[in-house]
Amino acid sequence: MLDQTTAPIVDADAHVNPPHTMWEEYLPASLRELAPKVEHGEDADYVIFEGKRRKVNLISAQAGRKGKDFKMEGRLSDARTGGWMPGARLEDMDKDGIDTAILFGGGPLGTANQELYKASFNAYNQWLADFCSHDPARLVGVGYIPMRDVDESIAMVREFAKKGLKAVNIPAFPQALQGNLDAGNAQTLALTGDVNGDRSYADPEFDPFWKAVCDLGMPVTIHLGGRAVRFNQPRWFLSDLLMSKFGMGEPIAIMIFGGVFQRFPDLKLVSVESGVGWFAFASNYMDETWHKQRYWVNSVLEKEPSYFMDKNIYGSFIHDRAGILMRDFPGAKNIMWSSDYPHSETTFPHSMEVIEKLFEGVPDEDRRMIIGGRAKALYNL
């Protein structure tokens, strides 16, 4: 067994679940009356927002429960408190053997109100910065932006970088300049963007953004955003989860073939919660097709796609023995373990046992990098 005192564990994908009551405190004073409210019903707690009343969704807060005991809806008291209480979070990290957690997602608001939508990104980022301030060495926050207007995006990143957040999460595809919001898709857009839009991250329009994050030394993350998962529909949930992993290959390929990493060699892009076992296949396939097709498509690349996978692309996984075993294949080395706490896929509270099983037979040096060393270097910890 690897001595954990010499191999700190960095959870490369963990989550926060800000309380619904947070918005009233963190939104600008002029918008606070529009914030969600919580109502206690006889059968469940309800979120009241923009004329709609829905039960509190608990799928993102099932840590510590067995699958047969999952509750998809219910009361706030049913949610794991480590999702929003820093003290409880640190206790759970101690219980699970986690030294540092990279923290993702709890915004924006699902609103068609453009002003409220943008303000909710800033509110969430401030809440997250305050959460992490309880122990900045162990709680590492990733800020969220909508990626509509490039100047707007740069300003938002610079602002939350001053507050200590260490990376920026963008949707898998740019959002439309005009927002194209409705209350039903606003939160999904924050992860996926406009999948069928005309804009591409490879377009010169976005080069000032890539330069800005490189200047800040800040990695860019895309989180399970290649394909939207229909979380509330059991019929599609499992198949959507699978396809959401593979769908992350599209934005990665767009940026590689579009020459983004050739123009910005210091740019680091992280595929979060999408597994890594497909990295080796994707790299090999992109190399083979590039060699055969690069002339007639007028490819701008000067090196094979796998070169950029190894230099610029990182990925996190939960259960992915295949990805670990393929770590020495071209394009498949930059992999990082994660617990996905407190979501329903989490390894909590058995992360150490899971790691022992996953890494059986893996040399200590490789294991140290995958369970912590690579994330420490990537996020400048």
From TrEMBL:
<keyword id="KW-0456">Lyase</keyword>
<dbReference type="InterPro" id="IPR032465">
    <property type="entry name" value="ACMSD"/>
</dbReference>
<protein>
    <submittedName>
        <fullName>Amidohydrolase family protein</fullName>
    </submittedName>
</protein>
<dbReference type="InterPro" id="IPR006680">
    <property type="entry name" value="Amidohydro-rel"/>
</dbReference>
<dbReference type="Pfam" id="PF04909">
    <property type="entry name" value="Amidohydro_2"/>
</dbReference>
<dbReference type="InterPro" id="IPR032466">
    <property type="entry name" value="Metal_Hydrolase"/>
</dbReference>
<feature type="domain" description="Amidohydrolase-related">
    <location>
        <begin position="11"/>
        <end position="381"/>
    </location>
</feature>
